[in-house]
Design brief:
single chain, Rossmann fold, globular
């Protein structure tokens, strides 16, 4: 069992190198931006980035004049986010602390970003519920999370000693330093959101095929062709829930109870 939410203070540099300074990281940002572009181009929004990390998406949204509040449990992550905003001459409010506590300090928002946090939490469902309560009626939740389906597929394809661990769900809560210990099942997460009064408007799989390919196969493949395949199938229901990460953009019922 994961006993507490993960703090990345001691892994900031490694996290940046392994997660963001890669083709995989660039692809993730590309699809997130594509899903969020209609909101970025619309009316000025109040936005809470709950667990902001390096805040690339928040910075991109702030460039269009939206009002940003950012928080992170990691002091070092928040310092990086502040520095990135300052370098770009952009303004935001920064709060250090867990999302569960920050939620009590802020007003409901037009858009809440909750990206790559859920899988690191000790209590994912309970915390997500707290976060969704800070979405205004008629507002949006942008949720990105590590996909448990992908963990099962990837480890099964590797076979050998991993198979009994998959059968017994013994891989859960066993993540390495940069491997999330608490991946989530997309179908379950979508049901939570629907039960809480949200409608799923966009459902995107990020890295449907890439992470199942060996280094040798990747080296023998044209990256442009692979990315074209990724893009072709990333929102297809048959394929998207195989992806390494899932992005959900969900709209909350308005004050009249309509979606």
């Amino acid at each position: 069992m994961v006993r507490q939410d993960r703090n990345f203070d001691k892994l900031v540099d490694k996290f940046e190198k392994k997660v963001y300074d890669t083709v995989k990281g660039e692809w993730r940002l590309k699809l997130l931006k594509e899903d969020l572009t209609p909101l970025k181009k619309g009316n000025k929004l109040s936005i809470w980035d709950a667990g902001c990390g390096f805040a690339q998406i928040s910075q991109w949204l702030a460039e269009s004049g939206h009002r940003l509040t950012l928080c992170d449990l990691s002091h070092q992550m928040l310092l990086r986010a502040k520095a990135n905003f300052a370098q770009a001459d952009l303004f935001a409010e920064f709060i250090e602390g867990p999302v569960q506590e920050v939620a009590k300090q802020i007003e409901p928002q037009d858009l809440v970003l909750f990206h790559a946090v859920l899988e690191w939490l000790a209590q994912p469902e309970e915390t997500l519920k707290i976060v969704t309560e800070q979405v205004k009626p008629g507002g949006y939740l942008s949720l990105l999370f590590y996909n448990r389906n992908s963990v099962v597929i990837n480890n099964t394809l590797k076979g050998k000693w991993r198979l009994p661990f998959i059968l017994e769900d013994a891989y859960l809560n066993k993540g390495k330093k940069l491997t999330p210990p608490n991946p989530q099942i997309p179908e379950v997460v979508c049901q939570w959101l629907q039960d809480w009064g949200f409608k799923i408007e966009i459902h995107t799989g990020i890295r449907v095929f890439h992470d199942y390919m060996t280094r040798e196969v990747l080296e023998q493949s044209e990256m442009e062709d692979l990315m074209a395949l990724e893009y072709r199938f990333c929102r297809e229901p048959t394929y998207r829930n195989m992806a390494r990460y899932i992005h959900i953009l969900a709209k909350k019922k308005d004050s009249f109870g309509t979606l």
